[in-house]
Design a protein that fits this description.
This protein is α/β, with parallel strands linked by helices. The chain has 13 helices and eleven strands. The chain has helices at 19-26, 30-37, 45-58, 64-70, 87-102, 119-125, 144-152, 166-173, 186-199, 216-229, 243-253, 267-279, 313-325, and strands at 76-81, 106-111, 137-140, 159-162, 181-182, 206-209, 237-238, 261-264, 289-291, 308-310, 339-341. The protein has a five-stranded parallel beta sheet with strand order 2-1-3-4-5, sandwiched between helices. A four-stranded parallel beta sheet has the order 7-6-8-9, with helices on both faces. Strand 1, helix 5 (87-102) and strand 2 (106-111) form a beta-alpha-beta unit. Helix 9 packs parallel to helix 10. It is elongated. 44% of the residues are buried.
């Protein structure tokens, strides 16, 4: 008798076939079905074909969690990161959660030690991740400590590394397959922002930079765009990640009457710069155009609304999770390229 799909409950939706349904229809044990799903060699050819035929007839789709358990792995996806407060990091983790939840996989977010910690401390923190049976791992490799973590896990086949740039990806690949190293194109994003300000007639663009070593592609995109345009390249002002350091940067930029355009390494810095300029009596965008980077949704409600470049951090998290879990994303859920969001904080240069 040919296998049939499980009957729907009266008045309810059709029940998805389970591995037990496959085993009963094929006349084998659940263990044998699991071995067929994992291409184990100790299953006879006739049995293997019968199980595969039943799987096709029932439309059985093994869950990701069940597949891991059959391999002796934990049904947990681990994310290693040095921060969970900054916008990009939070969006990556949110994207990972979206995909993992859809496949009944738990997410364990583990904080690495600060980047001032030595290499031994970082490696000690990784002992649990290196234990047998640990499932896939995503390393958000945006700083020195995370880089040590990614290097320590280089031989683990089911690790996905999120890095800062294409160049960093090439350096990080090593024994790891290239499709398990991902990044956002921050260089192009900063190029879009710099060109936008130059197109408004500003002679040059000053830059408030996030900490060196985390997002060097942002500063490189700004600098090389100015050089290609034949514009002066001012000395960048090094800052942190927060609005307070942007405010302090404005105390330098705001006293220089030649400063007419400021490009910040992230949106929080831009908020601080605008506040600092206002304190000094300089208007935005009348006296100085200010631009952010990252595309935080709330930047639309700054006063004035902040021009920025949107980066798809959440999409990066979804893509990393899909690769780690070996599942397909729905159409349209991939990573979007950086795009310009011009708003009221940037305007044509005066005079």
């Amino acid at each position: 008798m040919p296998p049939t799909r499980p009957s729907p409950a009266p008045g309810g939706p059709a029940r998805r076939a389970a591995i037990g349904d496959v085993a009963r229809a094929a006349g084998v044990s659940v263990t044998t079905v699991s071995r067929v799903l994992n291409d184990a060699p100790d299953v006879g050819a006739a049995t293997r074909e019968r199980v595969k035929r039943v799987i096709a007839d029932l439309g059985f789709v093994p869950s990701t969690a069940a597949r891991w358990l059959s391999r002796g792995q934990s049904s947990v996806l681990t994310v290693l990161t040095t921060d969970v407060a900054l916008y990009g990091y939070t969006q990556i983790v949110a994207g990972v959660h979206e995909v993992a939840e859809a496949h009944s996989i738990a997410v364990d977010v583990r904080l690495l030690p600060s980047d001032t910690a030595d290499e031994v401390t970082t490696r000690n923190r990784l002992r649990g991740v290196l234990a047998p049976g640990i499932g896939p791992v995503i390393v958000v490799d945006y700083g020195p400590a995370a880089h040590v973590a990614a290097a320590s896990l280089a031989d683990k086949p089911d690790v996905v590394a999120l890095v800062r740039s294409k160049e960093a990806a090439q350096a990080a690949t090593g024994p790891r397959p290239p499709d398990r190293v991902m990044w956002l194109d921050e260089y192009t994003g900063m190029t879009l922002a710099t060109r936008h300000l130059l197109a408004l007639g500003h002679r040059t663009v000053h830059h408030v930079a996030v900490p060196h070593g985390y997002a060097d592609e942002r500063s490189s995109g700004w600098r090389e765009t100015l050089l290609q345009a034949g514009s002066p390249v001012p000395e960048p002002i090094s800052a942190g990640w927060d609005a307070a350091s942007g405010y302090r940067a404005a105390s330098v930029l705001g006293t220089d009457p030649t400063v007419t355009a400021v490009l910040c390494g992230n949106d929080d810095l831009a908020l601080g710069v605008m506040k600092g300029l206002a304190y000094l009596g300089r208007t935005v965008p009348g006296d100085v155009s200010v631009m952010g980077f990252d595309g935080r949704p709330e930047t639309e409600f700054y006063a004035p609304a902040l021009s920025t470049v949107a980066m798809d951090w959440r999409g990066l998290g979804r893509q990393a999770a899909a690769r780690a879990l070996e599942v397909e994303l729905p159409d349209g859920d991939g990573v979007r390229a950086p795009y310009l969001v011009p708003r009221a904080s940037t305007a044509a240069a005066q005079g």
